[in-house]
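I'd like us to work through together how a protein chain folds, taking it slowly. To get us started, please write out a protein record for me. Label the sequence line and the structure token line clearly, so we can match residues to local backbone shapes. Once you have written the record down, we can walk along the chain together.
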Amino acid sequence: MEIIGNIIKGAITIKEALTPDVNPIEAQEQVLQHLLSTAKDTLFGKQYNFEAISNAQDSKVAFANSIPYFDYNQINDKWWSKLHEGLADVTWPGNPSYFALSSGTTGKTSKRIPVTDAMLSAIKQAGIDQVTALSNFDLPAEFFSKEAMMLGSSTDLTEKEDHLEGEISGITASNIPSWFKGFYKPGEDIAKIDDWDKRVTTIAKRAKQWDIGALSGIPSWMELMLKTVIDYHEVDTIHDIWPNLQVYTSGGVAFGPYKKSFNALLGKPVTVIDTYLASEGFLAFQARPETEAMQLVTDGGIYFEFVPFKPEYINPDGSLKNEAPSVTLKDVQLDQDYVVIISTVSGAWRYLIGDTIEFTDVERAEIKITGRTKFFLNTVGSQLSVNKLDDAIRHLEETFNTTIPEYTLCAKRFEDGFYHSWYLGSEGLKEDTLTIVASLDKFLKDANKNYRVARGKALEGVKVKVIDPHVFAEWSGTNKKKGGQVKMERVMGEDKFKEWEAFTSKH
């Protein structure tokens, strides 16, 4: 097997050496032209005169000036819903082969996002590019002969009308290249099990049959799977079962809040590589070990625009105001949060994906995810993004020598005014609530001037409750579905928070 590993590693290294460097700005201009020319005869392309935009002196400016922003509800109500009425050539030529179901982090109702064959090809190519980039991480040859565990949603897709439906991780796993199937675990039979708990139990039972070198999946669900395997075999760490585990490919959410609790399940360090795969496409991946930032996939099926993440550009529901200005990759700056806008080969146009990012290297088009537009906590002017909330959690972990893999909060009105009401998921946080509150409040004051100003005015302070982390998984299972792309909402509105508090009171 070491011979095979050397061959594979050598092939990857050669491919990396022979692949020309991509100029992100030029690549994006080519992607936009491809999108416009391909979709010019669709209903959407005719409505917005893609042919004229394509021939304009500056297509990027004409594109931005001609087409409004769309969030999911807007584009679905006006355009994608026509696909379910039997119409073709709506926002992309033909009909999509798949629809990705996504409840995201904001509600019970599943979004149905079209996934075309062109998008699947783009995702596969981005995956190959990511594998090729592994040559930068100085992994030993034997790693490339080990098996890879992809923990996503069920690959047992639902047939509906002329397409298949499922979560994006299930769709992509059901379309893995034939050459990769020998390395892929848990294998097609287990991957098709729809019930999350049954699937994970089956993985635990078979775990010793596999030689896993890499893991891939959302951190929260990956942790639960690893704990199940460890408990089933009555061992101390996952390396007692999979001694050759060397890489974890994280995605879906920021890995930071899970880092300490995840590492507690390991017997030795692993290389953590971040990815940015959403229901709408494969947006970015970590391409080099010198940074934790991810490189945008600028030469695939996605054209990117960026709106400065400022309160005056954001509606209360997290959508963008029509007058909000956008910039292309050519004009982005460091130290600025941006709302990500994408146009894709699945027929999403100037689409608000819901994430905010910050550029860490403009020339390389490298980013880090900083939060969600709907999770921007700006009640009474506190202006806290998810990355600031994550930083606060890491502060508490370090201060109290514990792990807090899950949390959520709400700006809630109490009898004496507004408080940030936090629920912390932790098994090891034993300090009294007042001590935790004081530490959390002080950190946020020191880290964020807007929060400090708000604390001197309408924001009375913070309240904290510590609960079992498993309650968060049960909440997701009750309100959405366990596993896959399901992510815990970090910031809730007051109505949703009432449901959450009623739920936690019973657990």
About this structure: The domain at 377-504 is CATH 3.30.300 (GMP Synthetase; Chain A, domain 3).
